[in-house]
Here is the input.
Amino acid sequence: MYDLIVKCGTVVDPSQNLHGVTDVAIEDGKIAKISVDIPAAESKRVVEVKGKVVIPGIIDLHTHVYSGVTDNGVDPDIGGVRAGVTTMVDAGSSGCDTFAGFPAHIIPNSATEIICFLHICRTGLATNPDIFSPESINLDKTIETIKGSNGVITGVKARMVSPALEIMGMEMPRMAKRAAVEAGVPLMVHIGDTLKRYDADVIRELLPILDKGDIVTHYFTGNPGGVLDSNGKLVPEAKEAHDRGVWLDTAHGRMNFTFDVAEKVLDQGVLPHCISTDLTVPGRQITVHSMTEMMTRFLAMDFTLDQVVTMCTLNPAKAIGEENRIGTLGVGMQADI
Here is the structure.
């Protein structure tokens, strides 16, 4: 007997090319069956969802949820399971000197699944600015921390912002890339300098560093260092990165998403792969409240519902290497719905 049937909803699961009214049965925390009209008598519990959309649990690829440690950290469950998001990727709130609080305090006390990318800065976002000298990076300890995290850390994060680039130049992202390669994880790079101080052409040096599986976040930033040149043209390195398998994530945030940039990028045909919030405490106060809000914005930009769901489930699951477990309603997969 099934533990639960989610009945009569419109199931949208791009991983299986599903878009139609069907039932979803769950047993022992896994998807057990997807079929039209599964008998209610076969389950201990039935939830009727006629007229509602049923999708795989949403994955937010860029968040900051080190609540109580960094001043921008959101309680994970506020932006997580209470908002339809079953998995959150913390994008570098912690570094090698501060990571231990995640497995000790944050993860055990959250219903939302949390996956971490480790900041190349040893203190993560506990300081602002994060990198203020070459000593802000401890490469060996960063690699050691990732390898010793029992899979909790699945990537490295670098932020292309002032004053890090003024202090270290391109050596900073190169060190982050080295850490990622040696630890066997992808690199996520924040583009766009909110202080508007560094050379915008640095994007053309950065993108060739990235390999298949790495992630560019803030793809629609209007700040210097974004993917558009001074004439509003997509830099050729952006298409080259896309073509070799670099993931393009839109990460809204407070100051790194503009519809004007989005329109120009989309008109040039290099579409993003992922939608994320860059969720923070000040962001929730000003601009960004939930993934569903971000999804609605993409529907307003003429993306289809199936495209939007793909960008919030299947693609981010692939970007973090978890597509065989989450981001899908496939039979046998984790029942995140």
